[in-house]
Amino acid sequence: MEPFLRKRLSFLSFFWDKIWPAGTPDDSVSGFPDSDTNAELEAPAAEPCTPPAVPGQLFRALYDFTARCTDELSVTRGDRLYALKEEGDYIFARRLSGQPSMGLVPIAYVARATSDTLSDQPWYFSGISRTQAQQLLLSPANAPGAFLVRPSESSLGDYSLSVRAQAKVRHYRISMAADGGFYLQKGRLFPNLEELLTYYKANWKLIRNPLLQPCVHQQPPEWDEWERPRSEFTLRRKLGEGYFGEVWEGLWLGSVPVAVKVIKSDDMKLRDLAKEIQTLKSLRHERLIRLHAVCSAGEPVYIVTELMCKGSLQAFLGSPEGRALSPPTLLDFACQVAEGMSYLEERHIVHRDLAARNVLVGDDLACKVADFGLARLLKDNVYSPSSGSKIPVKWTAPEAANYRIYSQKSDVWSFGVLLYEVFTYGQCPYEGMSNHETLQQIAKGYRLPRPAACPAEVYVLMLACWKGSPEERPAFTVLQEKLGTIHRCLHATLT
Question: What is the pTM of this model?
């Protein structure tokens, strides 16, 4: 509030000096961060003071502005403008960044540029947040005394000085005065940022932190059309938690419903995640869950997909609505999953964790396979037989559970167990048996019994999926074809 009142009502300076004597510290020392915190000393955002335009002066856009007529110029926050003349509450300017064009821009939407070469300064970092500044300064490439200047996040037109102090980063507000100068502490005004930094390099004890060298620039991760900042996503309701992390219902840009998988870094091999995400981006099929975006720079990693309103197939089958479904509808679910798995089979993608919990259901009873390939990213001590309950033994083929040999044929075994789940309305397979007992019984030749709702022809396919030798199990293309034939015959019989 103080900077705003001093800027806008400067003729009351005597009164303001009575309330806020110049040089009086806001905390223990003016311009200092608290010694026990990393809090940025930034006042609430105040309306920037924009001086009258002078022909030939450089400005920058503080806000997005969309032209409402042909005389006006649309600008985006951060655009650089060259003022040609002032016209009332507007400046007539030429845009220097982006596509060159001219027009009127409201003067309230711009601020005078402090330096034509600011972006060339090694210590100036535009477009980074407080968190990103901390990550950069605390990286191995930088030592205590490294510093940078960045635009303030909470007050447009002001800046922040971030300095590494041993194992922490301190942040200081650099405010703009009404005449366009800059100050870090009241009473010490500088015409530009460069002179301000020169002064505090020589008088670093005033801020208790030496300014030794500009922060080392690091090559940012390569972003593509899939990569989005986490700030675009709002997590609203937790839907569940599994081997791969938490799943949340969320909103993208405040309006688009999405599902957000928040990856647990403790359990995942994040160094391999980028390659797996590239695979996810390349897969497109109506029976696979659709990828919307990823947030893979830093942690936690977000994998953002379409939201399926009825949740997992396992949970849906056990609900009152699911339990009321007829065998033909259950068979239709099986056909849809087989179609999605056939697509993965054609592209030599091994799912590794096919189960009803990893199939999602939409409002129109459309089924989509999810989480394909993510099991590859689980750390060995998490996804292994020795870790007990972590590996889904009851859905896993013997060669995969015992020897970690995964293939499309091990996915076929899991599909047979999924068929059992479907026709038992979500019942857990091998109920009453431990993982160890399950593996023992399977090795002795035991197979799950035929569910009451399961057609005999489908049970024959289940048993084929559970052949001891992987080579004897059918391909997904064969399963899709045979299940489709059974479904058509069953539907014709009932109609």
Answer: 0.55
